[in-house]
Each structure stands twice: as C-alpha cells, then as structure tokens.
C-alpha cells in the first residue's frame, strides 16, 4: 500500500519533470486500491510515462483541452436590495 506522503513525493517529481509541457493539464494524487497513486491529466495522447515510479502507480488520463468559461453570477447576485 502506497502512503499519501509517498504519492506526494512522486507527484512533485513528475511536476518538475513535466513542467512547461503544453499537453499536461495537471498532476494530482488519486486513490489506488488501499493506497494512493498519481494521475497525469493530458489535453491529448502522446506522452509516455512508466506504469510506476518508486513503487507509486502512475495513471494518465486524456481529459481534452481546458477552455476558460465565462463566469455567470449566481441567482440573486448583483441585485440591489432596498
């Protein structure tokens, strides 16, 4: 079972290794069985990572490009009250 601290160390290594790549959207910690693993979110296929680093499982997931959305006010916001 991989501890949360172990997964964080590997996540930090991957963040440093992948920094600046346009196809990497994010790197995070995920549950993996009874322990933890690292997930790399990608905008498209094309990156090859080992299945594990220092015993920590590595998973890639293509989520597609991230596009900023216009923020709309919540219902009732921006309304003046008497």
Distance between the termini: 59 Å
Q: Globular, elongated, flat, extended or rod-shaped: what is the shape?
A: globular
What CATH architecture label applies?
A: 2-Layer Sandwich
Mean pLDDT: 90
Largest sheet: 4 strands, mixed
Q: List the strand order in the largest sheet.
A: 1-2-4-3
Strand content: 25-35%
Strand pairing plus helix content: what structural class? alpha+beta
Kindly report the CATH topology.
GMP Synthetase, Chain A, domain 3
Low-confidence residue ranges: none
Number of helices: 1
What is the CA-based Rg, rounded?
18 Å
Q: Provide the domain count.
A: 1
Q: What letter string, H or E per element, gives the SSE order?
A: HEEEE
Q: Please report the total strand number as a whole number.
A: 4
* CATH class placement: Alpha Beta
Percent helix range: 10-25%
């Amino acid at each position: 079972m991989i501890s949360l601290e172990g997964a964080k160390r590997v996540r930090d290594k991957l963040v440093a290794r992948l920094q600046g790549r346009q196809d990497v959207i994010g790197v995070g910690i995920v549950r993996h069985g009874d322990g933890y693993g690292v997930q790399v979110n990608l905008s498209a296929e094309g990156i090859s990572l080992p299945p594990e680093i220092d015993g920590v499982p590595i998973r890639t997931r293509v989520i597609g490009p991230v596009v900023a959305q216009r923020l709309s006010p919540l219902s009732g916001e921006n309304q003046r009250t008497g």
